[in-house]
Amino acid sequence: MGSFLNVVILRLPVMMEANWRQQCCELLNLDNAKYNENNTNVNLLTPPSHCPNCKYKISAIENIPVISYLFLKGKCRNCKQNIALRYPLIEIVSGLSVVIVAYYFGVSLQTLFALILTWSLIALSMIDFDHQLLPDDITLPLLWLGIIINLFGLFSDIESSILGAIFGYGTLWFVTLVFKLMTGKEGMGHGDFKLLAALGAWFGWQLLPLIIILSSLVGAIIGIFLMVFKSHDRNTTIPFGPYLAIAGWVSMLWGSHIMSTYLNTVI
């Protein structure tokens, strides 16, 4: 799955761009083939995995997660171009996440759906990091899936799930609206609204405050680190999706414990 996530992260934005270009060409009565020739046939299955530098087709034995990267010493077998370290890292993160989720929930339906959410959050985080996009192709199915599984009370009751979706979207929409009225700038993309709505649908409105606080805390820490040590311009946009994803995943596993510990400490 980690290897497949790398494909999704790389190709889904390309597929979206090709689709947008096709729609623009239809609107302007232009020849789509002329403007979209490089991306027309790209999907999650084709073309087969290949080196982006020399187009060398990667064989099955060269595509074993992590192991092949180590065996090839991080280089393409044909052109010796370095293979990005992010590919094995995503595979490792995916594998470790599966172990943690399976250990926490055991053999259950919760584990199955928690893994679906985990893999989706990894893909969304990397796509947002690369392109500042949170594709509807992932966020909207997650939202509806959260409501469907909570019809059976898998992670929350259905009332809390529906309210979580409503308040998740509405909270960030309201904050962004106020920010725009005060500054005249867009503070956050609508993809963030949909992602928080999806997390609210999965875990109920009760965990939304924790998700928002954790994501803001992680975002603030990383943002300060980038500005201090990487000469990051404070006016440069920072994607918020990865922080929401991290906070949502942590809340899925330990959210109730964190909330109860906090309330017991305060009260």
What does this entry look like structurally?
The protein contains ten helices and no strands. It has 267 residues and is mainly α. It is globular, with a radius of gyration of 21 Å.
Strand percentage lies at: under 5%
Task: Please state the average pLDDT score.
Answer: 87
Radius of gyration: 21 Å
Structural class: mainly alpha
Shape category = globular
The tally of beta strands, per DSSP, is 0
What series of H and E elements makes up the topology? HHHHHHHHHH
Uncertain runs are: none
Largest sheet: none
Span between termini: 43 Å
Instruction: Give the fraction of residues assigned to helices.
Output: 55-70%
Number of distinct helices: 10
Q: Tags for this entry?
A:
10 helices, 267 residues, globular, mainly alpha
